[in-house]
Write a structure and sequence with these properties.
The complex is a heterotetramer of chains A (346), B (317), C (346) and D (571). Chain A has 346 residues and is of the alpha/beta class. Helices cover 32% and strands 21% of the residues of chain A. Chain C has a two-stranded antiparallel ribbon. A two-stranded antiparallel ribbon of chain C has the order 3-4. Classes of the chains: A alpha/beta (346), B mainly alpha (317), C mainly alpha (346), D alpha+beta (571). At the B-C interface, helix 1, helix 6, helix 7, helix 8 and helix 10 of B face helix 6, helix 7, helix 11, helix 12 and helix 13 of C.
Chain lengths: 346, 317, 346, 571
């Protein structure tokens, strides 16, 4: 295995609020190899986006506290100065955000927004930048790119805007691309196109990708490894196959049972898992999933460790492997495949 | 864009039509004494009063009087009841003063409002932010005539640092004197708006700074300063600029009555105030219509500027 | 003001949206309870709220002060009399018309005005008048703006067209000019509309003028809000149940406007008090001998050189009252609806 | 609107009240033939300087007015500011001596050669124009210009119209509204310069009317319109060269005037007089004290009186004007239809208190006629006690109790000008103190007099004042003449209607020989006070205030026109 390009070790993120301290991320460790696609999956509020944003320091502020480390090519990102981080942002690690409708400055031309990032890292002439912008836009599949570079975001559809975001993220050929729910706000058909595009680009450029999503369905085809987060913690991680075919954590089972399907309304709630996600303000003791877990037992009042069960497949559950096998209802894999078939023809 | 402007202009005309009728009616419906008797003076005779009624068309039906008056308003031939001066000539004399007051104050409040608002937002939550917040709210809470009177008295009269009211034309006293005479009125008028603007800008910035596209900008690796100026400030300023246009319209369109009167600038506002003190309807009518004109005009300009600044606004829809 | 609320604390300290959503979902805290809790934590706002209550109480106690402490009335002239201050015989009003300054004793605590009246007594009575008009006018604004805003927003069509055009016209009317023109005319002869008859000099005149002047500032936002609410599901539901339009307006829409109205109310009162002062200053508001702070300032300015307290005292009371209302009002706004944008003119 | 006009206030006192009612004189025409000049001619004509003795002639003087003259057109102007300036540029056929005090009330020939010849029936006035007169533009003055001058007054609906309505045919002229129509009562001969005026009835004060500045001669081709922005040429020591409403006026010396040799009219000392309208009285006072401006027309605002007394020693002095401030008590309306109640008010008003409201610029008085007026005889002792001493409040309370009016509601009316407002509030407070239930009611100055002058208003009591239009008691006494009561536009606000007083006034009014009837006016004054028909409290003072550069001895307070700009000069 190649040397990982990014290593997150015991990351903790707390926010001070009026109501108290919110433990948004609680002891997360991850690593990312060059060219690898790592998916972080979880419900809203699971800490997955916070983890991703912490890497670029986008959620720094007087009320936020970060502990642990995140090493990127010898730089510790969490404690890096703003100036150092700035050199990494966009150039080394780029990010695509969830809502393309709001993530672009409404009063700036598309082309200018992309050019801004290029100019932040490279000294190029105006003409060179313009050419680069057009080329990037063409690469992400925006027709009549030269002309549309002069448009404003509101003149674009959601899918087109997300393409712009991708073009923006790729503009300095970053080593790591963080895609935070890149498809959530889009129509299902567009989702597939965007995912397809990300996959192509990955193959073309060899960029490592962290794909943050709440939808296991979108990752099956693209990710190499998956980390499932719940209540600020990683509850299970492993390769795609391991997760899909041998999920260990009851929460993962629930996720697998609620994969987005065309015939269901889109949404963040996972209808198949009863109950609400835990409050991170005042999290329950022990396993965070305890309250919603159908298989809860007294041991769950202690925090289960993230235990590696071999081949990098780890999970946080007190149940034994046998108990898990017995209690798993869904035939793993089938749903994932079914989903893939539905999406594929588009 | 062309259609939009045409539509706005038609709207403007309608609104001003309504304003003129309303103002006209206020003085027709509400009993405020007979202007003919007033004009005839104390020792008038019925013949004389009848002659005045005739000359001034007071006996015509209301709508004819309205049409007659409006004709005079638009041909600039409206005559004051109390001293029979041409109202438009008097307004023309006051306009440069009102503009001088309005523009200077507007620049001051914009510059100070924006810098203080920005500073406050950047230092948000800190001591200086709170201090500025308190000062802004005190500014907002002070009646301009009170501040103006105290300023004029203490700074202008007692300590003699500034001229005690009055206006000097540039042609007469030079640019320096002009500014010197206007500093106090500008300040008094601007205080309120500085408070309002810095508060609004601060909250706009704090709203904008959490917007997704600012996060995007930050993720690009540009400096915090650039993020602040190119993205946060630019977007936060759009509503401020439009507000600035509206407020400028209000000040020019009559909002400066108190300031002008307190500092004796003899602008249009003071002319209005003196006219209403004499229940001299023609100046009151014409100044009100003119004021409404400025307000509506700047509203329209603001709409257009807003559309230019913010491409999301589609004109004509 | 100086709220430590999350929305006010500044730079990217806001919680990520998902966590903020989380917080709002916290069990057992309705929006009103949250608001109350936030307000209670805003100490500065509370302090000024108390200051305001004290000012009101003080003003209401004016007759008691006048009768039992100062032994005079707000109207009693004592020009050629003398009083004994600390054993010294002094003219209440000097031969050249200069009234006595603050004695800091029971009588003429804050000195006399040019008519030899007790300034402290008039200050308290004046506060009563100013606050009465401020509250009265604000209630008128509230009722009219709500009514017209509801009508326009809910019915749409020609009703909306008429009301909106009226708003346009009022918007174009310079508030001060309108107020002064109406005030001067009405004070002269009063007005009779149907069974209602207002005598010139009645306190109702400035109250109504101010009340009407501000309708458009509240009416427009309310209309906008109703337009949004009208499309909401619960209104659809109410319609489906066959509720009449008036029922829907008053029992379904109105409660949803409550927070807006609550946010606006203190700020309208503050502005109304200021406008009253401005009108009275111009002679178009409260009529003599009734004292109001604006009347007192306008009388005081004549004697600024020899008796500055006549101008300063009512001015300070006015500023303190308006300031406390503004600060408290901002506190209410931050607690209820931090993003409400309020624009007033005075 | 008091605030806005706060600045103009003190002056407006003068302005607002510089109005008169048409002397609807008496109908009984007696046949005495007297010259209006009898009384005047006896005074020496040598005591008025027409050329400077000491001090310098020439130079440019600057001055402040608080409010713009209403008009800079002699036919129209009816304010103190207007007259102050116009008198220097438009001389009528008759005018007043350029002298201070009572001497200044003396009629002298202006553009006429002599005082008028009055016929035995007192209805025909004959005058003769001086020869060789020219307007400031060089046009020769013709006798027919007089008719044109009067036509302009009448046709322009001037506030002065009523004074000239006793002339035969003027009623019809006004009604016709044809500017060029002839006024049959005025016959002129351009050849001889003779002017004959016929009246419909005797008017004792008509010579004074001819001396009013409305009749300041203008050329016969002067248009029938308000000429404020382009004042017509006139005959006078000065000419108006610049007139911008609300900004300023410039007077320049009229070089031709000296050659006309009109003995009692000075030819002017200053080369030029620049008047600026400055509504800030604090600034006015500050500037004159610092010698930045030479002349201030208005008295200093009351809060500056103290400072002016200290800093402007030797160039500041108040003088009593021919004016009376009084409270009118409506004799037709309860409770003031009761003499006891009226007297109670007279007893209760503390004139010292009112003097303080005036910042000291009020001379307390118990008479209706002002001291500078012929016919003034001081009521000594005053029936209600010495006006400079404390009032007899106990007596007033007792009278109210006796009258049975205790607790009666009274509305005391006043306008919103600087002094009227506090005075009205004070009067209401005093009435409340003695047992009535009084509240003040303040209305706009511009409509005040027409409001209280309307019988429908039934104004019970209120503020009133009178500044003379001309120095003749008739100009005051009509205010308490029952014959002048009208339903609207009433000037006899208190509806004073006492047959004895009416008769005294009517008889006196018809007689052009003022000296002969002065005691009749005095008697009427005394009767009005005794019955408490009105409650006068004093005579207003105006002030002379100039810069250090001005020769103080040249600052003359003329009783009709106030500070005489034609005599003022630099040290």
């Amino acid at each position: 295995m190649t040397e990982p390009i990014l290593v997150i070790d015991h990351l903790k993120v707390d926010f001070q609020t009026d109501e108290g301290t919110v433990h948004a991320v609680d002891d997360v460790s991850l690593s990312l190899a060059p060219g690898e696609v790592l998916a972080i999956v979880g419900e809203s509020g699971s800490g997955k986006s916070v983890t991703a944003m912490s890497l670029l320091g986008l959620n720094r502020g007087p009320n936020a506290r970060f502990t642990g480390t995140a090493m990127y090519k010898g730089t510790e990102l969490l404690s890096a100065s703003n100036d150092d981080l700035r050199k990494i942002r966009g150039a080394e690690i780029a990010m695509i955000f969830q809502d393309p409708m709001t993530s672009l400055n409404p009063v700036q031309r598309i082309g200018d927004q992309i050019a801004e990032q290029i100019l932040a890292h490279e000294k190029l002439s105006k003409a060179q930048v313009r050419d680069r912008v057009v080329e990037l836009m063409e690469r992400v599949g925006i027709p009549r790119a030269a002309e549309r570079a002069r448009s404003y975001p509101h003149e674009f559809s959601g899918g087109m805007r997300q393409r712009v975001m991708i073009a923006l993220a790729l503009s300095c050929s970053p080593n790591v691309l963080i895609a935070d729910e890149p498809t959530t706000a889009l129509d299902v058909t567009i989702q597939a196109q965007i995912l397809e595009r990300i996959k192509d680009l990955k193959e073309e450029t060899g960029t490592a990708i962290i794909l943050v999503t709440h939808d296991l369905g979108v990752v099956a085809d693209i990710a190499d490894r998956i980390a499932v987060m719940y209540g600020g913690r990683i509850v299970e991680q492993g390769t795609v196959d391991e997760i899909f075919y041998d999920p260990q954590h009851p929460y993962t089972w629930g996720l697998l049972g609620s994969i987005t399907r065309v015939d269901r309304p889109r949404g963040e709630r996972l209808p198949s898992i009863a109950g609400l996600p835990p409050s991170l303000l005042d999290p329950p003791a022990g396993c965070h999933f305890r309250a919603r877990c159908p298989h809860e037992f007294p041991k769950c009042l202690e925090v289960p460790p993230l235990e590696d069960r071999g081949c990098g497949h780890a999970d946080r559950c007190w149940l034994t492997v046998e108990e898990k096998r017995a209690k798993r209802e869904v035939r793993p894999g089938e749903i994932g495949l079914a989903n893939k078939e539905e999406v594929a023809p588009v | 864009m062309g259609r939009f402007i045409v539509r706005r202009i038609i709207g403007m005309i309608l609104v001003m039509f309504a304003v003129s009728i309303l103002t006209f009616l206020i003085f027709q419906v509400i009993p405020n004494g007979d202007p003919a008797v007033r004009m005839a003076g104390k020792n008038s005779t019925p013949t004389q009063i009848a002659a005045i009624r005739d000359t001034w068309h007071f006996n015509d039906p209301i709508y004819e009087q309205y049409v007659y008056t409006m004709k005079q308003v638009f041909t600039g031939s409206l005559i004051s009841y109390s001293d029979q001066t041409n109202v438009w000539q008097e307004i023309k004399k006051g306009l440069p003063r009102t503009f001088a007051l309005g523009i200077g104050a507007a620049i001051i409040w914009m510059v100070l409002g924006v810098s203080l608002g920005l500073y406050s937002a950047v230092r948000s939550g800190g001591f200086s932010d709170r201090l500025l917040t308190v000062l802004a709210l005190i500014g907002v809470s002070m009646p301009v005539f009170w501040v103006g009177a105290l300023m004029s008295y203490y700074l202008g009269y007692k300590f003699g640092w500034f001229p005690n009211g009055g206006y000097t034309e540039i042609a007469q006293g030079g640019f320096g004197q002009w500014i010197y005479h206007l500093i106090l009125p500008w300040t008094a008028l601007a205080i309120l708006f500085v408070g309002v603007y810095s508060r609004i800008l601060r909250s706009n910035i704090l709203d904008t700074i959490n917007d997704d596209y600012v996060r995007t900008a930050r993720a690009k690796g540009i400096s915090e300063r650039q993020v602040l100026i190119r993205h946060v400030l630019r977007n936060s300023l759009i509503p401020i600029i439009t507000l600035w246009g509206l407020d400028f319209g209000l000040v020019i369109g009559g909002g400066a009555v108190l300031t002008e009167s307190v500092f004796n600038l003899q602008g249009v506002g003071q002319y209005f105030a003196e006219a209403i003190g004499r229940l001299d309807v023609p100046p009151v009518l014409e100044v009100t219509i003119l004021g409404a004109f400025f307000i509506v005009l700047l509203n329209t300009v603001v709409d257009i500027v807003y559309a230019l600044l913010d491409p999301r606004i589609r004109l004509g829809s | 003001m100086a709220s430590i609320d999350s929305a006010e604390t500044g730079f990217s300290t806001d919680l990520p949206p998902e966590i903020a959503a989380e917080e709002r979902r916290a069990p057992g805290s309705g929006p009103w309870r949250i608001a109350l809790r936030r307000l209670r934590r805003n100490k500065v706002a509370l302090v000024f709220g108390v200051v305001f209550v004290l000012l009101v109480a003080l003003s209401l106690s004016a007759p008691l002060y006048a009768k039992h402490i100062a032994h005079t009335t707000p109207y009693k002239n004592r020009i050629a009399d003398t009083i004994t201050v600390h054993g010294q015989q002094k003219n209440i009003v000097d031969f050249d018309g200069t009234p006595i300054g603050p004695t800091w004793t029971k009588q003429y605590f804050l000195g006399a005005d040019r008519n030899g009246r007790d300034v402290m007594v008039r200050l308290l009575y004046g506060g009563r008048t100013s606050l009465l008009i401020g509250f009265g006018a604000s209630l008128i604004t509230l009722v009219l703006a709500t009514f017209f805003g509801l009508m326009a927003g809910f019915f749409g069509g020609w009703i909306d067209a008429i009301i909106s055009r009226c708003f346009d016209v009022m918007w174009a009317f310079p508030v001060i000019l309108l107020g002064v023109a109406l005030g001067v005319s009405l004070n002269l002869g009063g007005i009779t509309v149907g069974p209602l008859s207002l005598k010139g000099g009645s306190l109702w005149i400035p109250t109504i003028i101010i009340g009407i002047s501000y309708v458009v500032y509240l009416g427009r936002p309310i209309r906008g809000q109703v337009l949004q609410l009208r499309e909401k599901e619960f209104i659809e539901a109410a319609r489906a149940q066959g509720l009449g339009p008036w029922r829907i307006m008053f029992s379904e829409l109105l409660p949803n406007l409550a927070s807006t109205l609550l946010v606006f109310f203190p700020l309208i009162v503050a502005n109304a008090v200021l406008l009253e002062a401005a009108l009275s200053f111009l002679g178009a508001g409260v009529q003599p001998p009734e004292p109001s702070w604006g009347v007192m300032i306008s009388e005081g300015v004549d004697l600024l050189t020899t008796a500055p307290w006549l101008t300063i005292a009512p001015g300070l009371m006015l500023v303190l009252t308006v300031l406390s209302l503004n600060i408290f009002g901002e506190g209410v706004r931050d607690a209820l609806d931090p993003r409400a944008k309020i624009r007033m003119e005075h | 609107m008091s605030k806005i006009r706060r600045a103009i206030a003190a002056l407006m006192l003068v302005a607002v009240s510089a109005l008169v009612l048409a002397a609807c004189g008496s109908d009984n025409s007696s046949t005495t033939s007297t010259s209006a000049g009898t009384s005047a001619s006896s005074t020496s004509s040598g005591d008025t300087p027409t050329t400077s003795t000491g001090g310098t002639t020439g130079g440019t003087m600057t001055g402040y007015l608080t409010s713009s003259p209403d008009y800079m057109d002699p036919a129209l102007s009816y304010t103190q500011e207007g007259w102050l300036l116009l008198w220097t540029a438009y001389t009528p056929l008759l005018t007043y001596k350029h002298a201070e005090g009572a001497a200044g009330s003396e009629l002298i020939p202006g553009l006429a050669e002599a005082l008028p010849d009055i016929s035995a029936d007192r209805k025909t006035y004959k005058l003769k124009l001086r020869s060789g007169l020219k307007y400031s533009d060089g046009t020769p003055v013709k006798a027919s210009d007089f008719e044109h001058t009067i036509q302009r007054v009448l046709n322009l609906e001037s506030g002065g119209t009523a004074f000239y309505l006793p002339i035969v045919g003027t009623e019809a002229y006004v009604k016709n509204a044809k500017p060029d129509a002839d006024i049959p009562g005025i016959v002129t001969d351009d050849q001889t310069g003779e002017i004959t005026i016929k009246l419909t009835k005797p008017v004792g004060s008509f010579a004074n009317v001819l001396a009013m500045d409305f009749a300041g001669l203008v050329p016969g081709n002067t248009p029938f319109k308000n000429m404020t922005t382009d004042p017509p040429p006139g005959v006078g020591p000065y000419m108006v060269t610049r007139s911008v409403p609300n900004r300023g006026i410039t007077l320049k010396k009229n070089p031709a005037f000296a050659s006309f040799d009109i003995p009692e009219i000075p030819t002017g000392n200053m080369d030029q007089i620049d008047i600026t309208i400055n509504k800030n009285q604090h600034q006015q006072v500050e500037d004159v004290i610092q010698n930045k401006v030479d002349f201030v027309n208005d008295p200093p605002p009351s809060d500056l009186v103290r400072e002016v007394n200290e800093k402007a020693k030797g160039r500041y002095a108040p003088y009593v004007t021919n004016s009376t401030y009084y409270v009118f008590l409506n004799n037709r309306v309860a409770p003031f239809d009761n003499e006891k109640v009226r007297q109670a008010v007279n007893y209760a008003i503390d004139k010292r208190a009112l003097q303080r409201i005036f910042g000291g610029l009020l001379a307390p008085s118990c008479n209706f006629l002002p001291p500078g007026m012929k016919g003034y005889v001081k009521h000594d002792p005053c029936p209600y006690g010495d006006p400079t001493q404390a009032p007899d409040t106990a007596k007033a309370k007792q009278l109210i109790q006796e009258s049975g009016a205790a607790g009666a509601d009274v509305t005391v009316w006043g306008d919103d000008e600087a002094l009227s407002k506090p005075v009205t509030e004070y009067v209401a407070s005093v009435m409340s103190d003695i047992g009535l239930k009084a509240t003040p009611k303040i209305v706009e100055g511009s409509v005040y007099f027409q409001t209280v002058g309307n019988q429908k208003t039934k104004a019970q009591a209120g503020f009133a004042n009178w500044f003379q239009d001309f120095p003749h008691p008739a100009n005051f006494m009509f205010l308490i003449n029952g014959k002048s009561i009208q339903n609207t536009n009433n000037q006899n606000f208190g509806n004073v209607d006492d047959p004895e007083i009416n008769k005294l006034i009517d008889d006196a009014d018809a007689n052009p020989d003022l000296d002969a009837v002065a005691d009749q006016y005095a008697k009427a004054d005394r009767l009005a006070i005794d019955h408490g028909y009105i409650a006068p409290y004093g005579n207003a003072e105006l002030t002379k205030l100039v810069s250090d550069k001005i020769d103080w001895s040249s600052v003359i307070a003329q009783p009709v026109y106030n500070v005489d700009l034609t005599q003022i000069r630099f040290k």
